[in-house]
Specification:
The structure is a single chain. This protein is an alpha/beta fold and about 375 residues long. It folds into two domains: about 150 residues, Aspartate Aminotransferase, domain 1 (Alpha-Beta Complex), CATH 3.90.1150.10; about 210 residues, Aspartate Aminotransferase, domain 2. About 40% of the residues lie in helices and about 15% in strands. It has 13 helices and twelve strands. The strands form three sheets. Strands 2-8-7-6-5-3-4 form a seven-stranded mixed β-sheet, with helices on both faces. Strands 9-10-12 form a three-stranded antiparallel β-sheet. It has a two-stranded parallel sheet with strand order 1-11. Helix 3 packs antiparallel against helix 10, helix 4 packs parallel to helix 10 and helix 11 packs parallel to helix 13. It is globular and about 55 Å long.
């Protein structure tokens, strides 16, 4: 019997009678709601649906080939997965034209970001990051008591690369998210190449982490991955994830590209069996379906354009996005807006200070976005 993408996510990870008692509305992202905010948990307890537009997840879930691979790998769940990681690295390397020893796995790219802070920062070597940007590196550095320098975005809400260069002197790690989360803004290849050269020249020890979690969604012709730089720059490495376009956020598979010596400084710190057997099977299968990924890109592009156009037509400013979300200036406190949307069943993004009048809205299916803007219309009115 064929297993649909949404039906698979309803069933996986829930054994016995529990698989029969899930609310009917739980879909590709519903299981994660059980660990979300109290307001979301309350809606779940009441059997009320939540439209999850706050975590930048793929609304379609894993592709069919990944679902087949996971169901076919159930028998491996009794074995520790570390011994099979080589096959995943080989598949990733082959898909991107690098060597397997230039690939490191992580339990989502979040683990890679934490390992980078741990490996390259110190009490005398600070972290440089944009503000706002993805918070994990800065949060983890502060947890470890390490210094952090946050660079405000420029007037156009783009990462201020010139100031990032200035702050990189004496740094251990420069974290550069491109496209940036939460803005969706992307810097083009020429600007990034200039930035990387300037940072490396500013300090002989600084290392640059380019977070390309949203790489697959970019349409801007000026953009290119920084992947070619790892061939000649040992102080540059890249993080990617299967959580976004591949729809595997719940399976936790991330990866990094870099020179072996650079990756080795992080690899010795990581949990060697942190990527489970089912996740590995799903990752390999996902890489083998480029046509399906192009379809996912098309669906996101269509729904993103619809959402941005709706807000623009309604008189609100939308930051041009190259990701699977949009950031909108709603001209009011984003927390109040978030809470009001949630009472009507739509979860939107968390606050990203200092942009407290902006809200980040993840892109769902076209039908989901039509439902969402109806709720947003009522809330904004």
């Amino acid at each position: 019997m064929a297993v649909s993408r949404r039906a698979f996510v309803r069933a996986i990870g829930v054994g016995g009678a529990g698989a029969l008692t899930l609310p009917a509305w739980v879909g590709a992202r519903g299981l994660e709601a059980a660990t979300a905010s109290p307001a979301e948990a309350a809606r779940i307890a009441q059997g009320r649906a939540i439209l999850r537009l706050h975590s930048n997840e793929n609304p379609n879930g894993p592709i069919p080939a990944a679902i087949r691979a996971m169901t076919g790998a159930f028998h491996t769940a009794a074995h520790y997965p570390a011994s099979t990681e080589g096959a995943v690295r080989t598949a990733i390397a082959a898909a991107h034209g690098v060597r397997p020893d230039q690939v490191m796995l992580g339990s989502g790219s979040g683990e890679i970001l934490r390992l980078a802070v741990q490996a390259f920062c110190s009490p005398t070597r600070h972290l440089v990051t944009a503000n706002p940007s993805f918070e994990t590196p800065a949060t983890y550095a502060r947890t470890l008591g390490l210094p952090v320098r946050e660079v405000p975005l420029d007037a156009g809400l783009a990462i201020d690369l010139d100031r990032m260069v200035r702050e990189s002197r004496g740094a251990g790690l420069v974290f550069f998210c491109n496209p940036n989360n939460p803005t969706g803004h992307v810097h083009g290849k020429e600007r990034v190449d200039t930035f990387v050269r300037a940072v490396l020249a500013a300090d002989p020890e600084v290392v640059i982490l380019v977070d390309e979690a949203y790489h697959e969604f970019v349409d801007d012709p000026s953009y290119a991955s920084t992947l070619p730089l790892i061939a000649t720059q040992p102080r540059v490495f890249i993080s990617r994830t299967f959580s976004k376009i591949y729809g595997l956020a719940g399976m936790r598979v991330g990866y990094a590209f870099g020179q072996p010596a650079t990756l080795g400084r992080m690899d010795r710190l990581r949990l060697s069996n942190g990527v489970g057997a089912l996740a590995q099977a799903a990752a390999i299968a996902s890489l083998g379906e480029p046509a399906q990924m192009r379809r996912e890109q098309e669906l996101n592009r269509e729904a993103r354009a619809f959402t941005a156009r709706w807000f623009t037509d309604a008189g609100y400013t939308v930051v041009p996005s190259q990701a699977n979300f949009v950031l909108v200036d709603i001209r009011r406190d984003c927390r109040q807006f978030r809470d009001a949307c949630l009472t009507q069943g739509v979860a939107v993004g968390r606050p990203f200070p200092p942009l407290t009048n902006h809200t980040r809205i993840s892109i769902g299916t076209m039908d989901e976005m039509r439902q969402a803007v109806d709720v947003v219309r009522r809330v904004l009115a």
